[in-house]
Amino acid sequence: MRLSDSVPDPESWETRSRTTRYADEHVEVVTEEVKTPSRVQPKLWTTVLRKNAVVVAPVTPAGKFLLVREERIPVRSSLWEMPAGQIDGATAPNQKQIEAEAVRELREETGHQLSTGGELLALGYFFSSPGFTNERCYFFLARPVEPCGPDERDEMESILECRAFAPDELRRMIVDNEIRDANTLSICARLAARGFFALEAR
User: Which residues, other chains included, contact 166 with Cβ-Cβ below 8 Å and sequence gap of 6+?
Assistant: First the structure.
């Protein structure tokens, strides 16, 4: 199944044509002619189609958040981020597949797993950049987590380190622009809205 096969055509949205410009196992670039609910004439738009993804906020028994520092080639910088990754296999994964991917990314990127009696709490999803891509990222809070041995990172990833940050440290990093990626900023906003993390200074 191609990535473009997962793009819905809801009622009153009509795809008149689609041309694939590039495709590999991770992304597909398409130019589409789309009739939207508010337009009489269809609009031409180029979109990067991506697999769904997960973003995990792991919390230690001490109440600290685990972040990884990863080299990001497009921005020529290493960034502190919450663990995240694409969901392989299914273009329209069910909840069990999404949760399994969240647990796998937690283990691979941080070397941690849910403690006995811990919980993996789904916090909804967001679109990372809806004017450019259809990527949908699912949020999870994992608490508490514990070390489970050496991380099993994908050889394509460039994670330099994993470290635990207290909520006050994480808040300062956001204020000082040390946290700059959409995934981490977005999950922090969702955590704050749900009462799991306070963004205001205390």
Answer: 63, 64
pLDDT tens column, 114-135: 999 999 999 999 999 999 999 9
Structure token pair of residue 117 = 């009696």
Average pLDDT over the chain, rounded to whole?
A: 91
- Strand, coil or helix: what is 187? helix
Task: Decide: helix, strand or coil at residue 36.
Answer: coil
Structure tokens at 141: 């809070």
State the pTM of this model.
Answer: 0.90
Structural domains of the chain, with CATH: 3-50 (no CATH), 53-193 (3.90.79.10)
Give the type of residue at 197.
Answer: F
**Residue 123 has what pLDDT?**
97
Peptide bond into 144 cis (omega under 30): yes
